[in-house]
Every structure is written in structure tokens, then in C-alpha cells.
Design goal:
Blueprint: H1 3-10, H2 20-29, E1 31-39, E2 49-57, E3 62-71, E4 77-88, H3 90-107, E5 112-117, H4 120-126, H5 137-147, E6 152-157, H6 164-172, E7 180-182, H7 190-200, E8 205-215
Parallel strand pairs: 2-5, 5-6
Antiparallel strand pairs: 1-8, 2-3, 3-4, 4-7
Helix pairs in contact: 3-5, 6-7
């Protein structure tokens, strides 16, 4: 398939010139349409605790680390953590961080837990909507054993832009050599503390995503 036929097939809503030079000029001026979504971290119902977690892998496989934060219905921090885990894979690190966070939630006596992550696949594994790879099936089972120790549990997907606190903690794990637990906001890394304050004030972040459709220049 030649270039002209390909581009007119993929983007039929644009009037493409037949001359090659004119076609190139128009292509250079075209831009992707961008979808902007307003997102923000949402507080929990009364008597619930929210656990936000995230994992970070420098390569796949490669060095991995986890981070997460427990917050109450007012958004106040109860516990946060950043932990390096050595070598592993993307799938492994996502499960390791939720297991670490759930273990601490139960240890601290929180029995009504909302787990919020920015991986839809992880949500599907935990909520039994998809079968996990055999290599991590034991970790998924370990997670369900923790869930069974709670009175109420839910796992939800959230956009990455609403999960910046956990994301920054997971990235911070690559800068440390031993697990770090934080019991007050003042102990948090500077960047994490700023994101946490934004969440408490329910400040919005903007999620920008290019979509397949492109705009024809005016």
C-alpha cells in the first residue's frame, strides 16, 4: 500500500491533496487531538481507610521498588512507605506493593479498606475478573488471604494523575537501600509532601491524552 492510500484510509475525514509536496506540507501541520480530563484524589466514606499504592520498575525485569499511603476519610495520612525490593518484573512489583500496604492496614486495625491503584489489570486480578499469569498466581492468592481478614474491601482503578503520592514514593524507593515507614506528613519526601497537600485540598490535576484522530489545520 502506498503512502497516499494509507494516510487517506486511516484519516478519511481530512481532504488530502494528491500532489506529494502539498501532502507533505499538510501532514507537517496536522496535530493530534488531545483529550483533557480533570482528575483528583477522592476522600473515602466515613470509617473507611484508603490505600493508594504504586510500583516502580527501572526495567522489565530490573530493579523494583514500591510505595504507598494510608489515609482516612479526611485525607489525613496514617502511614506511608517506600521500599526497595531488589530485582523483579512489572507485574510482580504491582502485587508486592498492594500486599505490603494491605499487611500494614490490617496490622494497624483497619478493617474497611479501599485499595486504589493505577493499573486496571491489577484491579481485574484482585477482583477475580481476569486470570493472572502463573508466575504471580501465588502472590494473588496471598493478596486474597489478606482481603479475607478485612470486614469490607474494594479495589478501584484510578488515573495515574490521581495517584501521584504513591507514584512519588515508589520512585523514591530507588534512592534508598532499606524500607522506610512514615508516620507523619513532615517525614515524607519533599515532593511527596507537596502532592499529599494537593490531595487534602482536593486540587485537580489534568490528564492529557492524545487520541488517534488528528486535526486538519485551518
Amino acid at each position: 500500500m502506498d503512502s497516499y492510500k494509507l494516510i487517506t484510509t486511516v484519516f478519511p475525514h481530512i481532504k488530502w491533496p494528491s500532489k506529494w509536496n502539498d501532502l507533505i506540507k499538510l501532514v507537517e501541520r496536522c496535530v493530534h487531538e488531545t483529550k483533557v480530563t480533570i482528575v483528583y484524589w477522592k476522600k473515602t466514606p466515613d470509617q473507611w481507610i484508603k490505600l493508594n499504592t504504586d510500583g516502580s520498575a527501572l526495567s522489565n525485569p530490573g530493579r523494583i521498588g514500591v510505595g504507598g499511603i494510608l489515609r482516612d476519610q479526611k485525607g489525613h495520612m496514617k502511614l506511608a512507605f517506600a521500599t526497595p525490593l531488589g530485582e523483579g518484573t512489572n507485574n510482580q512489583v504491582e502485587l508486592e506493593t498492594t500486599i505490603f500496604g494491605m499487611t500494614w492496614s490490617i496490622h494497624l486495625g483497619y478493617m474497611k479498606v479501599i485499595l486504589e491503584v493505577d493499573s486496571q489489570l491489577l484491579v481485574d486480578w484482585i477482583m477475580l475478573k481476569a486470570k493472572p499469569p502463573w508466575s504471580i498466581s501465588t502472590k494473588v492468592q496471598q493478596h486474597h488471604e489478606l482481603i479475607n481478614q478485612t470486614n469490607n474491601f474494594n479495589c478501584k482503578y484510578t488515573f495515574r494523575e490521581a495517584n501521584f503520592v504513591a507514584d512519588s514514593l515508589s520512585k523514591h524507593s530507588h534512592n534508598i537501600t532499606t524500607p522506610q515507614l512514615y508516620f507523619s506528613e513532615q517525614q515524607l519526601p519533599k515532593e511527596t509532601r507537596a502532592y499529599h497537600q494537593m490531595d487534602i485540598m482536593e486540587m485537580a490535576n489534568f490528564r492529557r491524552r492524545k487520541i488517534k484522530k488528528i486535526k486538519e489545520p485551518l
